[in-house]
Design goal:
Layout (H helix, E strand, L loop, with lengths): L4 E5 L4 H12 L3 E5 L3 H15 L4 E3 L7 H15 L4 E4 L15 H29 L2 E6 L12 H21 L4 E8 L8 H4 L2 H10 L9 H11 L10 E4 L3 H4 L3
Parallel strand pairs: 1-2, 1-4, 2-3, 4-5, 5-6, 6-7
Amino acid sequence: MTGDVALITGSSRGIGKATAEAMAEQGAKVVISSRKQDACDATTAAINERFGAGTAISVAANISSKDELRHLVDETRQAFGKITTLVCNAASSPYYGPGLGISDDQFRKTMDNNVLSNHWLISMVAPEMLERGAGSITIISSIGGLKGSPIIGAYGISKAADMQVARNFSVEFGPRGVRVNCIAPGLVRTDMARALWEDEENLRRSTAASTLKRIGEPHEIAGAAVFLASRAGAFTTGQTIVCDGGATISGGA
């Protein structure tokens, strides 16, 4: 990914952080972004120490704010001159429980942060990619978008919508060389999924039903993100790559 500039949301920890580290290792410049500036700065400092000064910058942004996302895009271009890779990783899951119990505000937050914010970012970044005739956009979706759930139903609805966002934009952008894909992780050891993997019964059920018999680690999703963003994935668009340890093929959670 030498010569690439990757903007990655939700990248101060978890899958986003692992993706930023993996892309930096492959030669990309990376932009670290999450809600808290101090968390972004810490991740940026670690990447610059490991891969060289100037490899990463940090720009805090709340994905629920279109103005803050615009600022994020503007600061990225100011620092690196372009954006060749967008990874929409940041998301919300504010409610765990049956669908009839979710409030309107919780449902809207789920849809706004997991779908609308991605649409905003793609709309901000895609025009320069289309003009250049090259670019890669990846949305971190979830296997929750491939099946139903009694506890994270709204989250699954939003992640299914992300897959359709990728398909639609891949049709629109493909003739001009810009690719759009999704990654659908299974249960991964992240802070966002903590309520799922710290639940001993849910963890037992999930790992017992998956073929690898364990949950994933953030760096195990990052490799797929590098593939989709790099020249190795140049013929892949409109797809959802499932990285779930074999959970969906065997009935796991």
